[in-house]
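Running log. JK asked me to keep both predictions on one page so they can be read side by side. First protein, sequence followed by its tokens:
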Amino acid sequence: MATLRRDAARNRERIITAARELGASGESLQLNAVARRAEVGIGTVYRHFASPEALSEGLVEHRFAQLIADARSAAEDADALGALRGFLSKSLEVFVDDPAFASASVNASPVREETRELRDQLIEAFAALVSRSESSLRPGLDALDLMILTCGLGYSVRLRPERAAVYLEAMLDEVLVTKS
């Protein structure tokens, strides 16, 4: 994302904060409501986010940054298979905690170019980890496959949170050729 002037960055942060507050209170993400809550004009909101979908994607940028860093760190771990298992577990937690992020991370056609770039960076970082564990994976699976499977698992865990560990192990039993 391009560097913003200080006042524009401040307004963007107010918009993000207002949108998170609205979401936390269960309200839909309507740009007029966000503008009122952020105490900025609707034009200011539109300059930063052209649609509610774009704003929704903007709300999860920090999640991308977090998982990109986690994937890069895991890819450097000496125990590649253990690092893969740990990263998938961490990813599952994020997908469960933030359905908007789960959606943005597997959407092949994001609304914002920034989201597309972040998604590509996440897949690239995860692919480096997956390539190190390739000999332990079912043939034909790649990083995007594993991300989509984990995202789907996140939906299941939101329905039955107490089964998270069981669901993750069931998935790993199917995608790993050998268990660690």
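And the second, directly underneath as requested:
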Amino acid sequence: MNPRPLPSDAHRDSATQKLQKVLAQAGLGSRRDMEQWITAGRVTVNGVKAHLGLRVGPRDLIRVDGRLLRPGTEGELPRVLLYHKPEGEIVARDDRERRPSVFDKLPPVRGAKWLAVGRLDFNSCGLLILTTSGELANRMMHPRFGLEREYAVRIRGRVAPADMERLKRGIRLEDGAARFESIVEEGGEGANRWYRVVVREGRKRLVRRMFAALGATVSRLMRVRFGAIRLPPRLRRGQLVELPPGEIRQLLASLDLPATGTSLRIRTD
């Protein structure tokens, strides 16, 4: 039997989407990951090797590494986990130093994989959100939505009121200007002071670098909120909890994502 022809790139009706977006929505990885898979020749559509920019519809047969993606249950929701990350774990699957990974503790998921919404560095702790939806992860991290990240930060020393204003107005870092949406002192003992800060972007080690620009050293950093999701007060370090369907629907709606729809899963039978 001859393979189905690839859908025309000019056929751009509302029933088609870009291939990398469809793969990300299936929970296989981020859009960037999926673009790399397509470029590497790991994806076929209707028996033909796919290319970047290809649009696909519900009737197209998509295979990844030869395995068919099948429709999931109509209205199936992505899964979302909240994990209280302790210090001493990395947010990556592969590490040359073989350090403990947050992914080592996650429950198995069939036909998809867990994706981290942003990262926390090895020495940071607190709220880490994980999901099976690449599109959900992408929107939560995308600058267009500007979701707030709130941190409790302990530093050695004290930030002068004038420097707190500087941090809110914006300071120059090696990769561009950065600012806190807010910074509030929350007391402390001895040489250590606690601050509560809010940022709207997820650049690498941003909070630590902003304090370092003022000569202050962060001795502890804990994320307590990402967007509307707060770290549950009873969730101990190293523990995780799964969001219930109602809260997942609210999260999807807040990011202009459909709360129902047909998902894709890699066929495992």
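Observation for JK regarding the second prediction: The chain has a mean pLDDT of 86.
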